[in-house]
Structure formats: structure tokens, C-alpha cells
Design a protein that fits this description.
alpha/beta; single chain; three-stranded antiparallel beta sheet; UCP028408; 382 residues; Dna Topoisomerase Vi A Subunit, Chain: A, domain 2
Length: 382
């Protein structure tokens, strides 16, 4: 026989559809809870205990909640007994008081009214997301202020904290998820739908990634940067650089970047800190297309996966110091980080063979463990 807890669980599963019916302005209909259980007890004492338990939580005893309808049924072991054949809620008040949701639904109704008064076009969103209306119960005044601003200024070109909206300076940052969903509906024609980052998606300024690079040719550093050779600038500015260089060396680790100035003199060359998979920040640097590109990463699976990623942007990229000879010479039995990547990588045959060895054995040789003497000799011939 069904228990009061099971009745509660089944009733709670009806709650979302009830909220949706409120938005659609449908009147409350008798809400039936399926019992799904037949009587199996052979002891009259157990039977009476179960019946009393169900009845004790019903509207008959508590003044609200579910109503029970009984019918005389002939049982196998106990003869004819009154068994509950129907469990239902007669009114909205019975349903909500049983769930303890009266105040929550009052707030929901009020917020739905406020939202639709401002933006009737959000009705479908509310129907699909009633729990999000409830989850942001005390925020709607501020959320709607933000939405109203973007509706009137769909291309703000401000940093988030510069937005002239009378909310806390961190409010938008802390509520990006819900605001994003609403703006996707409200200003869809201005949304950069291919962009995942909030600022890019909604035409805001943002703190761009910095590209850090070292100028390995002193003539260039003197001419263009007043002798400064260690530089970091926003990626949009880096994309516009116009330097008389012919070669770019991208290194995976910061430690290796520090040592690049000790390399043999390299005319017309800069070295860039790729910062692992952050090499994607370089994908739109189109002045790279005509340059000689060298990539130097760790000899591990991630190093080759980053090389493959970078090569999808710039097919001419050549790996350096990532060969089996260097690995066999300096490997110190270090473990790597396992990978879940199974797709074919953009590697040469030799690189792919070494990649498979590293992947199978979970091995790693970090690039900074290759002695500088060996590195310098390599670049002397590069």
C-alpha cells in the first residue's frame, strides 16, 4: 500500500507542471495521485496500522492536503475491508499547503506578473523555466533593470562594471547565467550567438588575454620597444603588430620563456609564451601566416596535443626539441597526465609514433629539463 512519503514524492513531481499552468492561466483541476500499490498484508494489525498512517496525513485529519476515497474490497486474508482507491487534491490550497509551497507560489505569481508586464516576450521562457523564476526570487527587480538597459542599448561597448545601471557593481557578473538566457530572447538580433563568453556575446568590453613575448633580436627591441625585450600586450593589439621578423618560437612553459634570451643570437625572431592550450588566443594572428613558426613544448601527450591544436591554425608549424632522441637522452621516468583524446592528431608520422609511446606508458619529459647546452647547440643549427 502506498505510504504518506510516497504520496509526498509523487505530489512534488506535479509541482513544475502546476507552476506552468499558472503562467498559462489554466484553472486548477482536481489533481490525482496514482496509488500504484495493491494491498499485500496478511495481518489485520499491520493493515490497520497502514490505513491509520495514510489517514493521519489526509485532509480529513489535518484540514488540508489529499483526500482519500475508500471502497469495500474483498481481500484474500482479511475478508472485506475498506481500502483507499483514490487519492487526490481538490483545491490549489490543499495542494500547496500539503507541499508547504504557499509563500513560494505567492512570490512566483507576483514575479511572473512583474516580468510579463516588462517583457511579455518572456512568457515562453518562464513556462520552460519556472524553477529559475523561483531560484531568483529576490533578484527580479535588478535583473529586469539590466535587461531593460540592454534592450535600449544592445551594443553597450562598456566593461561590465562600467554599465550605467543602478544595481550593485558586481550584480551582472554574479548573475551572468540567468541574464544571458533572458538577453538571448530579448535582444536576439544583436547577440553574437557563436560567442560563449558573456562579454563577447553581448557586445561588452572585457579584460583581454595578454600575449607575452620576448624579442630575441636586439635591433628590433631597440627600434620598436625602446630596448624593452620582455613584453605583454592584449591579444587584439598583438594581432595588429607589424614587426620585421621572419621567425616565431612558441614555448609551452613560462620557465622556458625566461631562458630564451640565453639562446644563440636570433635575427628577426620573437619567442612567445603559449601557456599550454591557451595557444588558441593566437589563432587570429594572421601575420603569422607568412612566417616560420616553431613550437617547443613538453614531450608528453599534452605537449603534442597542443602542437596539433596550434598546427590547425598554422599548418607550417614545425616542432623543435620534441623528438625521440631528446626524449631518450633526458627522460627521468616522470609520469605524465593521462589523456582522453582519441581523435587523430595533426602530427607528422614521427611525432605520432612518439605520442603513442608517451600515451601508452604515461611518460613525460618537461622541456625545462633539457639542458641549456643541448638547447643552444640545437638552435645554433636552426
Amino acid at each position: 500500500m502506498i505510504t504518506p512519503k510516497e504520496i509526498k514524492d509523487k505530489t512534488e513531481r506535479k509541482y513544475i507542471s502546476f507552476l506552468q499552468s499558472l503562467v498559462e492561466q489554466e484553472p486548477f483541476k482536481k489533481l490525482v495521485i496514482r496509488g500504484d500499490k495493491s494491498y499485500t498484508k496478511s495481518s489485520l494489525q499491520e493493515f490497520e496500522k497502514e490505513i491509520q498512517h495514510i489517514v493521519s496525513q489526509s485532509k480529513e485529519k489535518k484540514g488540508f492536503g489529499y483526500t482519500l476515497e475508500f471502497q469495500q474490497v474483498k481481500t484474500k486474508h482479511l475478508g472485506t475491508q475498506d481500502l483507499p482507491t483514490s487519492i487526490y487534491f481538490d483545491t490549489e490550497k490543499d495542494f500547496l499547503k500539503f507541499l508547504g509551497k504557499e509563500n513560494e507560489v505567492d512570490s512566483f505569481k507576483l514575479n511572473v506578473e512583474i516580468i510579463l508586464r516588462e517583457f511579455p516576450e518572456l512568457r515562453e521562457w518562464i513556462i520552460k523555466n519556472p524553477k529559475k523564476v523561483i531560484g531568483n526570487v529576490n533578484k527580479w527587480q535588478n535583473i529586469l533593470q539590466v535587461c531593460q538597459y540592454f534592450k535600449q542599448n544592445p551594443k553597450p561597448n562598456f566593461y561590465i562594471r562600467e554599465l550605467p545601471i543602478k544595481v550593485h557593481t558586481k550584480f551582472v557578473e554574479r548573475n551572468k547565467s540567468i541574464i544571458r538566457e533572458l538577453l538571448d530572447v530579448l535582444i536576439s538580433e544583436y547577440v553574437k550567438s557563436e560567442e560563449k563568453e558573456f562579454e563577447n556575446r553581448f557586445n561588452l568590453k572585457y579584460a583581454e588575454p595578454q600575449i607575452r613575448f620576448k624579442v630575441l633580436d636586439k635591433k628590433i627591441s631597440d627600434r620598436f620597444f625602446s630596448g624593452i625585450d620582455d613584453i605583454a600586450i592584449p591579444v587584439s593589439q598583438f594581432e595588429k603588430l607589424d614587426l620585421p621578423i621572419s621567425k616565431v618560437l612558441v614555448v609551452e612553459n613560462k620557465t622556458t620563456l625566461y631562458t630564451t634570451l640565453t639562446l644563440p643570437k636570433m635575427n628577426d625572431t620573437i619567442a612567445i609564451f603559449g601557456s599550454g592550450f591557451s595557444v588558441f588566443n593566437l589563432k587570429n594572428v594572421r601575420w603569422f601566416d607568412k612566417l616560420k613558426l616553431l613550437y617547443w613544448g613538453d614531450i608528453d601527450v599534452q605537449g603534442f596535443e597542443i602542437l596539433s591544436q596550434f598546427r590547425t591554425y598554422f599548418p607550417q608549424t614545425k616542432s623543435v626539441l620534441m623528438d625521440k632522441q631528446a626524449f631518450d637522452t633526458f627522460f627521468e621516468n616522470d609520469n605524465g597526465t593521462p589523456t582522453n583524446i582519441s581523435m587523430k592528431l595533426n602530427l607528422t608520422n614521427e611525432e605520432q609514433e612518439l605520442y603513442e609511446i608517451l600515451k601508452t606508458n604515461n611518460w613525460r619529459l618537461e622541456q625545462e629539463k633539457i639542458p641549456l647546452e643541448y638547447v643552444n647547440k640545437y638552435f645554433d643549427n636552426e
